Amino acid sequence: MPLRLQDRPGRLMLAIPPTSGPEPRFWYRCRACGHSRASDWPDLPSDLDGTSCNSCGSEEITLFEIATRAAIRLPRPLIPPPVRYRCADCGSGGLTSDGDTCPACLGAGFL
Questions:
Q1: 111 part of a folded domain
Q2: For tag attachment on the chain, is the N or C end more exposed, with fewer CB atoms within 10 Å?
Q3: What is the pLDDT of residues 2-11, one digit of tens each?
């Protein structure tokens, strides 16, 4: 229970007694139902699959790191990998690092 303190006339402050455990590092909010609470994780797990809301079970949650104010949206959006190799003949981006011929022009230089 917070204690009420008055440091000067007309200004009230709340003194919250310290908790027994460490400060929470992460806070999460469910985008489906709006439920939010502090997470008891000491660090982010390497695999976040199956992380869901305790209230409704939705996997659409946003994690907030309190210290850096960084936000992590789950499930993470799938981002296509960048095209790293382009064919010198036709400019297609279908080449891999295996050294194969271009699948678009088959090394002939035209489509």
A1: no
A2: N
A3: 555 555 666 6
